[in-house]
Automatic annotation (TrEMBL):
It comes from the Bacteria. InterPro entries: UCP012641, Zinc-ribbon_6_bact. Residues 27-119 form the Zinc-ribbon domain. This is Zinc-binding peptidase.
Length: 388
């Protein structure tokens, strides 16, 4: 077993040695063609492809010993697989299921409680976009060692998704989380609608993947913080979540964030309530981790650039004396440099900043807290299979 974050730290220290280490974003077909997370067929040789979530691996496939089963090239010892039943739906899922499983849907698709009404002409394409973002979320959660249990298996502590539109009374759904159920207004998959709402809400950033990462942050607060030894430290760092959420919501939308919010929070919305501060910071942790991992996988690094950024000191961290503190700080500083480079690339194309946020020291401490919580979860956080 390799530790995910330890391995990522090694790549941060030696970014141009990425070809010798795990690259979780680009794989190779048996013909040598590069493969990407979304692919279900090689464009060069037409080989069938499949993603193995527990191994964080996309590979070309060859027919298995039984009809409709497949073996993964380069990982034949993993046994036979079947392809997710949602492969031939608008969801276009390319994930695999162990052949011995009774399930017809992969772990990501099994989280769906409600899919959009596909008789509405716009919804098949909306669902495709939603599922693409959700699969990326679920793959990341698994790679971090977080438990992903469908509500269909555990109603009380499981996770589920409702992708719905306007109801019979003409009411639009509210995107949010409640007791493990994440609800998403399917119109969020329309770029024009989402951008209109982003401007109305004065948000610098609004994406499907961002929604998912934020809402599962609420889910994992319930799983990892509530009733745990982390609850007291959480209240010290983020605030007391027992404060009325309804009152906090009214206060936020009537009066806006407090004037000094940029000194303590990652976004204006994070100031609304400790739960939202946690979810916003959690989402940014996932953004940062995935983006740095992806950039290093492609050999991208701003380490050699002459960027005038003051690195954060160890005293910024939630637990400055933690043995893993220097590695986490290197990750954060690598992200700051990478975001600066990517922002300039976006500006060169006349686009908004890639990462329109500023991370003050108080947010770094919160990010470190979240990192430590994830590391502790199940004893397998930050772990990926050695086979990757």
């Amino acid at each position: 077993m390799f530790r995910y974050f330890e391995q990522l730290s090694t790549r941060i220290a030696a970014p141009f040695m990425a070809h010798t280490s795990r690259n979780g974003k680009v794989w190779q077909c048996r013909c040598g063609q590069s493969l990407f997370f979304r692919n279900s067929q090689c464009l060069a040789c037409q080989a069938v492809l499949g993603y193995q979530p527990q191994q964080s691996r996309l590979s070309s496939l060859q027919p298995g010993p039984v009809v409709d089963t497949w073996l993964a090239d380069g990982n034949l010892d993993a046994g036979a697989f079947r392809r997710c039943a949602n492969l031939d739906t608008p969801a276009a899922c390319n994930w695999l299921i162990p052949a011995h499983s009774n399930a017809s849907l992969c772990v990501a698709c099994s989280l769906n409680r409600t899919i959009p009404d596909l008789s509405i002409p716009e919804n098949p394409e909306r669902w495709r976009k939603v599922e693409t973002a959700k699969r990326r979320l679920v793959a990341q959660l698994i790679s971090l060692g977080l438990q992903v249990v469908p509500k269909s298996i555990d109603e009380n502590t499981g996770l589920a998704f409702d992708f719905i539109g306007i109801d019979l009374e003409g009411n639009a759904p509210t995107t949010g989380h409640a007791n493990g159920l994440v609800t998403l207004d399917i119109k969020e998959a329309d770029d024009a609608h989402r951008e209109k709402v982003r401007v109305q809400m004065r948000e610098p950033y609004r994406t499907l993947l961002g929604h998912f990462r934020h809402e599962v942050g609420h889910y994992y607060w319930d799983r990892l913080i509530a009733d745990s030894h982390w609850l007291g430290p959480f209240r010290t760092l983020f605030g007391d979540e027992r404060a009325s959420y309804a009152e906090a919501l009214d206060q936020h939308y009537q009066n806006g964030p407090r004037p000094d919010w940029q000194q303590t929070c990652v976004s204006a919305y994070a100031t609304m309530h400790p739960w939202e501060d946690w979810a916003e910071t959690w989402a940014h942790y996932l953004h940062m981790m995935d983006a740095v991992d992806t950039a290093l996988g492609f050999g991208m690094s701003a380490r050699e650039m002459d960027l005038d950024y003051q690195p954060f000191p160890l005293t910024t961290l939630y637990e400055p004396e933690h043995p893993g503190g220097p590695a986490f700080l290197s990750f954060v500083n690598a992200w700051i440099e990478l975001a600066g480079m990517l922002n300039e690339l976006s500006r060169a194309m006349g686009q908004p900043d890639f990462y329109p946020f500023v991370l003050p020291p108080a947010v770094i401490a919160k990010l470190h807290f979240i990192h430590l919580v994830i590391q502790e979860e199940g004893g397998r956080a930050d772990t990926v299979m050695a086979s990757t």
